[in-house]
Amino acid sequence: MELPQLTAPMGWLLADLLVGAIIYLTYPFIPVAYRLSVRNIRWILVPYLALLQGGISPRLMGLTGINWLTSFGLGLGLVVTVAGFLVLVRSTTDFTAPEALTPTAGAQDSTRSLSGPAQRQLTLAPLFFAGAEEFHWSFLRGALWESQYGIANLLDQPAYWAIWLAALLAVPAVFRFHTTTLSRLFKLILLLLTTILFIYTQNFWLCWMLHSLVLLLLIP
After folding, report:
1. Alpha-helix runs per DSSP H in 53-116
2. 8 Å CB contact between 110 and 124
3. Backbone phi, then psi, for 129, in 5-degree steps?
4. What is the CA radius of gyration of the chain?
5. pLDDT in tens, 196-215
6. Closest CA to 208 of 220, 197, 219
7. Cα 167–chain centre separation
8. Angle at 194 between CA 192 and CA 195, to 5 degrees
9. Other residues' Cβ atoms within 10 Å of the Cβ of residue 140
């Protein structure tokens, strides 16, 4: 079998992995005050540039060309089921996600006295964090999926395997950015849920909705 050529999406994927490796190695040395910004830049920068340069298909990332009938069938059903389960957990226990699953814990401690617009802005912050991380996960899925078009007969179900391989590539960041066993477990479960949702719907927007709901329902 011939070696695959370095296609545009594969090139962007390698660039993203290089950026990720640099941040992974240097993250302990980054001042805490800047880690939130570094995370979000890491999630957004390369995928945005890839889209801007036409290096990856927005359809394969789940941004466009969505089958909304399927999404509102299986997809929305899964989102509602997970949300209902989390509401039940929150209403029957005093459980909240450790380390807040998002990097806002430090910011929350210093802004508890805020009210009005500032308080609402803080409350909506997890929506942005969820979108940034989910955007990156969708980039990994789309880049791997599109790259397989240049590799004839490599896999019978390129979309299925690309989506799961993307989940594996996202795991190292979970262990770097989260420090406790429980917080890592929560993020891995969230990654699993959105991966399954994407397999059935190829819909970034629904994955973002699920990601956001989990964070909003679990953080204190």
Report:
1. 68-70, 76-92, 105-110
2. no
3. -60, -40
4. 18
5. 999 999 999 999 999 998 88
6. 197
7. 9
8. 60
9. 23
First vs last Cα of the chain: how many Å apart?
Answer: 53
Q: Which one-letter amino acid corresponds to residue 113?
A: S
Give the per-residue pLDDT at 82.
85
Cα 52 to chain center, whole Å?
19
One-character DSSP codes across 121-172 = HHHHHHHHHHHHHHHHHHHHHHHHHHHGGGSTTS-S-HHHHHHHHHHHHHHH
User: In this structure, what DSSP letter does residue 160 have?
Assistant: H
Note the pLDDT of residue 112: 43
DSSP strands (E only) in 74-187: none
Number of H helices, E strands in the chain: 9, 0
Dihedral sign for Cα atoms in the order 96, 44, 42, 57: positive
Q: What is the pLDDT of residue 15?
A: 95
Closest CA to 35 of 125, 102, 127: 102
Where are the chain's structural domains? Answer: 8-218
CB atoms under 10 Å from CB of 179, counted, come to 10
Q: What is the pLDDT of residue 32?
A: 92
203: phi then psi, degrees, rounded to nearest 5: -125, 105
C-alpha to C-alpha distance for 169 and 165, rounded to whole angstroms? 6
Compute the distance between CA of residue 93 and CA of residue 220 in angstroms, rounded to an integer.
12
- 50 DSSP assignment: H
- Are 127 and 40 in contact by the 8 Å Cβ rule? The answer is no
Instruction: Measure the CA–CA gap between 158 and 151, rounded to whole angstroms.
Output: 10
CA angle 152/137/124 to nearest 5° reads 160
